[in-house]
Amino acid sequence: MSLYKQLLIGICLFTVIIFCGSFYVTLESSREQYHNQLSAHAQDSATALGLSLTANIDDPVMTELMVNSIFDSGYFYRIRVVDIKTGKPLIERQNTPQSASVPNWFVRMVRLNPGQGEAVVMRGWNQVAKVEVISHPMFALTRLWDSLVASFLLLSVCSILCVLGAMLMLRRSLRPLNHIVDQALAISRREFLNLPERPKTPELRRVVEATNMMVTQLKALFSEQATRTETLRQEAYNDSLTGLNNRRSFDIKLQSRLSDEEHAAGHLILLRVQDLIGLNQRLGGAKTDQLLVAVADILNELQQRFFHNEGFLARIRGGEFAIIAPPILPQEMENLIATLSTQLKALHETGMSDVTPVAHFSQVSFNMGDTPQALLRQADQALAMAETEMRFFADTQAPQEVENEDDHHHWHTRLETVLAKESFELFSQPVYECNNKNIILHQKILARIKTPEGEIIPAGRFMPWIHRLALSRRMDIVMLKQTLKAMEKSTQPLALSISGESVADEESMNALLQPLKGARHLAGRLTLELDENELPNPEQVSLLVQKLNTLGCRLGIQHFGGRFHLIGNLPQWGLAWIKVDGGYIRHIDQEEDKKLFIEAIYWATRQINLPLIAERVETEGELAVLEKIGLYGAMGRYFSDASTLTK
């Protein structure tokens, strides 16, 4: 029971006790007072009648007349004149008047005794008769009933006002406790809230100040840990000169991409600044560094423009840069070559380089199963060919492999049909507890397309076309509808990936979440996941989390690791979990830098009780390291193949 209820019940009990006590004291004092009045009234009447009869006791008519006049003038139960010698009544009057305004139960409860009085009638010095008077309490009962009713109403009104006043006072006084509860619940949701209002009660003020200090210190500790981990990540995976990803980060990303059947296909673009050693000797190190930074800026801008942040740009060594890009059409590649050529020529014309072309670059395609060594060797050979032939660009893609307009039309027709019929094939991959392979935390939903011939097409083949044809929002809505239908036949928690386009603005969010509004009973078992690179601005993420919480659903982040600076926003989002990109998990038992990085993420997220899940775990050695670090969950081929169908 809450403190508010306990205090309120205590105040109510105290009020009831005071009420009953006051009512009882009032009743008893009034009853005693009226009893005394009745006794005095009876005695006074008896005395007056006795004196009056002294001169007329021998006259029966006059005696009766006097008794009747006294009896009729007051509230008497009985008046009797008794002969002292014989003990026989000379005259007796008796009556039992009733009062309709006083309930019988009140008469029985009060038990107000009638007053009695006696007087002696004298004849000279002799006692002749005795007068007995018994007054009736009807009048006193009526007055007592009226006074007690008025007293009851007054006490009731005062008690109600006191209880209402106590409720208001308690609510106002205990309001800071509610804020403290909200603050504690926010901490459990990995949010840090300060209470700006200080209560006037000294005890509560100290409690609020102490909790605010605790929250501030927790927030500072988390921010410090996040900053330290981000610094560690930059030192390990960023190039200090250009700010791009370095060779270690590039190797991790390339290996991860080639082993990911969901996003395996793509292009590797390799660029090398011409005669870097000669530039150092002729222009000096500072000028050469400026050239490298300028080239990095050009590639970063082109990467965002043509690949919409889906590409991965790195400086792999010296004057060599690499881009891991999603599949692109030949026309887009031609536009990229022309734009890059123009901007590199501008560097020569402005004197940043004294050789032309400033750089050469090559492009090779890759698919799942290719090895990083073979792919880099192929790209390097193409680049060497371009340098030998003094060509700006070299492309190793075979003519028959080039996507044409027929492919465009074919994929558009196929995807439109699947979206219209809502006929994606739902596959799933289980996510297990790290330290207990028998406990499934949830199932990760994967999308497939089934051709009329029965072929199952993985997401890695059709997702680039989904993005290229701007069908991401429609696909997310269709996948959500199909997932909710599948949840009707299952009791397992599920996780579903959505694209950044579906949460880019509030209108898109509302359209995406519309199916959830009609399935609130299922929303508690569903978690939506966003890629780290597709997260909108922090305000949009907070709005999305708020909308999902309203529906009972939650949000998680997948493929995390490249944008660690986002961890500073994690406390205010209240995420369900974070899934670490598989590139940082592969060979973690052999590469110490990956282990240190995962440990840094783990300790940063542990402070806010945010579960950490590893993606694409493939060996027992990798799992053993993750268990030792303390990760919450893991998924990958080591546990189960990704093609397990959700029944």
UniProtKB/TrEMBL annotation:
<dbReference type="InterPro" id="IPR000160">
    <property type="entry name" value="GGDEF_dom"/>
</dbReference>
<dbReference type="Pfam" id="PF00990">
    <property type="entry name" value="GGDEF"/>
</dbReference>
<keyword id="KW-1133">Transmembrane helix</keyword>
<dbReference type="InterPro" id="IPR035919">
    <property type="entry name" value="EAL_sf"/>
</dbReference>
<dbReference type="InterPro" id="IPR042461">
    <property type="entry name" value="LapD_MoxY_peri_C"/>
</dbReference>
<feature type="domain" description="EAL">
    <location>
        <begin position="408"/>
        <end position="647"/>
    </location>
</feature>
<feature type="domain" description="GGDEF">
    <location>
        <begin position="264"/>
        <end position="395"/>
    </location>
</feature>
<feature type="domain" description="HAMP">
    <location>
        <begin position="171"/>
        <end position="223"/>
    </location>
</feature>
<protein>
    <submittedName>
        <fullName>RNase E specificity factor CsrD</fullName>
    </submittedName>
</protein>
<dbReference type="InterPro" id="IPR050706">
    <property type="entry name" value="Cyclic-di-GMP_PDE-like"/>
</dbReference>
<feature type="transmembrane region" description="Helical">
    <location>
        <begin position="7"/>
        <end position="27"/>
    </location>
</feature>
<dbReference type="InterPro" id="IPR001633">
    <property type="entry name" value="EAL_dom"/>
</dbReference>
<dbReference type="InterPro" id="IPR029787">
    <property type="entry name" value="Nucleotide_cyclase"/>
</dbReference>
<keyword id="KW-0472">Membrane</keyword>
<dbReference type="Pfam" id="PF16448">
    <property type="entry name" value="LapD_MoxY_N"/>
</dbReference>
<keyword id="KW-0812">Transmembrane</keyword>
<dbReference type="Pfam" id="PF00563">
    <property type="entry name" value="EAL"/>
</dbReference>
<dbReference type="InterPro" id="IPR043128">
    <property type="entry name" value="Rev_trsase/Diguanyl_cyclase"/>
</dbReference>
<feature type="transmembrane region" description="Helical">
    <location>
        <begin position="148"/>
        <end position="170"/>
    </location>
</feature>
<dbReference type="InterPro" id="IPR032244">
    <property type="entry name" value="LapD_MoxY_N"/>
</dbReference>
<dbReference type="InterPro" id="IPR003660">
    <property type="entry name" value="HAMP_dom"/>
</dbReference>
